[in-house]
Design goal:
The complex is a heterodimer of chains A (about 240) and B (about 200).
Chain A (H helix, E strand, L loop, with lengths): L5 E12 L2 E7 L11 E7 L5 E7 L9 E7 L7 H5 L6 E8 L13 E6 L3 H13 L9 E7 L8 H10 L3 E7 L16 H8 L8 E7 H13 L7 E6 L1
Parallel strand pairs in A: 7-8, 7-10, 8-9, 10-11
Antiparallel strand pairs in A: 1-2, 1-6, 2-5, 3-4, 3-6
Chain B lengths: L21 E2 L20 E6 L5 E4 H5 L4 E8 L4 E12 H8 L7 E6 L4 E5 L9 E6 L2 E2 L9 E3 L12 E7 L28
Parallel strand pairs in B: 1-5, 2-11
Antiparallel strand pairs in B: 2-3, 4-5, 5-8, 6-7, 6-11, 8-9, 8-10
The chains are: A alpha/beta (about 240), B mainly beta (about 200).
Chain lengths: ~240, ~200
C-alpha cells in the first residue's frame, strides 16, 4: 500500500551541488515509480512531535529496491539539516511513490524538454536516467535539458549530465548561470528569457514536444509563461513548483 | 513508527495546524501547468447542471453580487498551511439560492480555465463554508493564486479550492476531478490527513 509508512535505510550520501545532497536509501519494499514522482518523509522526535516533507526522487525506476533523493539544505529548516547529518545505516520513515501528473516515461511520444531551476533538476534527473537506460529502444528521441543555476557549483549532477551530452548526439544540455560565471564560460549567463527559449527550442514547434518545468515558484511561473508566449501549447507544459 | 534519534523540533505544536502541516508566511503555489491568462473582459462564470435557473455571469455582473469575507486558515496538500488569511467574494449559499439547485444534486464539480476540475459534496459548499473568492487580503487575487476568481473551501485541502474558476456544475453522483483521479484523496480533510487515495 503506497499510503503506508515504510522504513528506508541510508546507504550513502554525497554532495551533488552547492547545498544539495543526494541521499541513497535501501528500500527493499519500493514498488517502483514513474520518473517525476516524489516521496513523503516523516521524522518523529522523542516527544512524539512529527514533521513531514516531500522530496523528489532522482533515481530511475530500474534501480530496484533503492531510491535516491536530492535534498536542498535549508539552514533554518527543520528537516533538511537532520537529513544532511544522517549517517549510513540510519533509518527514516517514508511513503510513496506519490504524484500523478508530473510524470514521464519512454512510452510518452515526442521530444522531451526538461527545464530545471536549482534543485528543480532532481525529478528531471529521474526522467533522463530512465531514458538513458533505454537508449537502445529510445535512441531516436531528442532530449533537451536547460538548467538555470546561480553558479556552476549550483548545477546538480553536472558531470553525469555532461557525460550524457558527450555520449549522445540527441541529448542537448544547456546551462545558464544567473549570478556568477567562471572565466571563459561559453554557456548562457543570464536569467532564462524568450530569446534563449527560442534559440534552444524554436525548432521543436512542429514536433509536439512535452515540457517539464521544475524549480522555485517564481522560476516556474516565469519559464512556463515564456513557453506559452513563445507559442507552445499550454497543455504540453507540466510544472512542479518547490515552495 | 520509529523515533528519529537526534531529531529536535524547531517548530511549536500549534493546535491550529493539522497533522503533517507546517506554517508558512509566504504564499506558495501549486499548479499543474502554466498560469492561464484570463482577461476580466472575457471572463465568464457559468453555473449549470441540476439547477432550475442556470446562469452565466460576466465580471461586471459578478462584481455586483453581495459580498462576504472569510478570515481563516488554508492548508495545501504539499504540507504548508497559512494562517489567518482574509478572502472576499460571493457566498456559495447565495449562488446556490440564486440558481435554485435541485434536491437531486449531490455534488459540485468545479471547472477551471486551464482544464482543471475538482469535486465536492454539496454539503461542503453550504452553510457558510465556501465562496467564490475574488479578493485576497483586500486586493484582487493575483493570477498565480487563481485570479480573477477561485473557489474557496478552506476546510478541505486547498486543491479543492479550484483556481481560475470557469464553471460550477451541480451533479447527481460523484465525478472525481483532476487530482482525485491521479492518486489524491477524493475528499481531502486536512484534519484526517486525507492526502492520498487510501488515506
Amino acid at each position: 500500500m503506497k499510503n503506508k509508512w515504510n522504513l528506508v535505510t541510508l546507504l550513502e550520501s554525497k554532495m551533488i551541488g552547492t547545498n544539495v545532497m543526494a541521499l541513497v536509501f535501501d528500500a527493499p519494499w519500493w514498488p517502483g515509480h514513474t520518473p517525476g514522482q516524489y516521496i513523503d518523509i516523516r521524522l518523529t522526535a522523542a516527544n512524539g512531535y512529527q514533521a513531514e516533507r516531500s522530496y523528489s526522487v532522482a533515481s530511475t525506476i530500474e534501480e530496484e529496491g533503492r531510491i535516491e533523493l536530492g535534498i536542498e539544505l535549508l539552514e533554518e529548516g527543520e528537516v533538511s539539516p537532520y537529513l544532511f547529518a544522517l549517517e549510513p545505516g540510519a533509518q527514516i520513515e517514508v511513503r510513496g511513490p506519490l504524484g500523478g501528473h508530473f510524470l514521464w516515461d519512454i512510452a510518452t511520444p515526442g521530444p522531451l524538454v526538461l527545464i530545471g531551476g536549482g534543485s528543480g533538476v532532481v525529478p528531471l534527473m529521474s526522467m533522463v536516467r530512465h531514458h538513458k537506460l533505454h537508449l537502445s529502444d529510445d535512441s531516436e528521441r531528442e532530449v533537451f535539458f536547460l538548467i538555470s543555476a546561480k553558479t556552476i557549483g549550483h548545477v546538480l549532477y553536472k558531470d553525469e549530465l555532461e557525460k550524457f551530452s558527450r555520449d549522445d548526439v540527441n541529448f542537448h544540455l544547456a546551462l545558464t548561470l544567473t549570478e556568477e560565471a567562471p572565466i571563459g564560460w561559453t554557456g548562457y549567463a543570464r536569467r532564462a528569457d524568450e530569446v534563449m527559449i527560442n534559440e534552444l527550442f524554436g525548432e521543436l514547434h512542429d514536433k509536439r514536444p512535452l515540457f517539464y518545468v521544475c524549480g522555485s515558484n517564481s522560476f516556474v511561473e516565469t519559464l512556463s509563461g515564456i513557453l506559452v508566449a513563445a507559442g507552445f501549447n499550454p497543455k504540453s507544459i507540466k510544472t512542479e513548483r518547490f515552495g | 513508527m520509529i523515533i528519529n534519534d537526534g531529531f529536535i523540533p524547531k517548530r511549536q505544536v500549534n493546535p491550529k495546524v493539522p497533522p503533517g502541516q507546517y506554517v508558512v508566511n509566504d504564499f506558495p503555489v501549486l499548479s499543474l501547468g502554466p498560469t492561464p491568462d484570463i482577461s476580466i473582459n472575457d471572463w465568464k462564470l457559468e453555473i449549470a447542471g441540476l439547477v432550475e435557473a442556470p446562469q452565466v455571469f460576466t465580471w461586471t455582473e459578478f462584481e455586483r453580487l453581495p459580498r462576504v469575507e472569510m478570515k481563516t486558515d488554508i492548508h495545501c496538500v504539499t504540507k504548508w498551511s497559512k494562517l489567518d488569511t482574509l478572502w472576499g467574494g460571493v457566498s456559495m449559499d447565495f449562488l446556490i439560492e440564486q440558481v435554485i439547485v435541485s434536491e437531486s444534486a449531490t455534488h459540485l464539480i468545479a471547472h477551471s480555465y486551464d482544464g482543471y476540475s475538482t469535486n465536492l459534496p454539496i454539503e461542503d459548499v453550504r452553510g457558510g463554508k465556501a465562496m467564490i473568492a475574488t479578493s485576497f487580503e483586500k486586493e484582487p487575487i493575483s493570477t498565480p493564486h487563481g485570479g480573477p476568481a477561485r473557489l474557496f473551501v478552506p476546510h478541505l485541502y486547498f486543491w479543492k479550492s479550484a483556481k481560475w474558476l470557469s464553471k460550477l456544475e451541480f451533479v447527481n453522483g460523484d465525478i472525481p476531478g483532476f487530482w482525485e483521479v491521479r492518486g489524491y484523496h477524493n475528499y481531502g480533510d486536512p484534519w484526517k490527513e486525507q492526502r492520498y487515495l487510501d488515506d
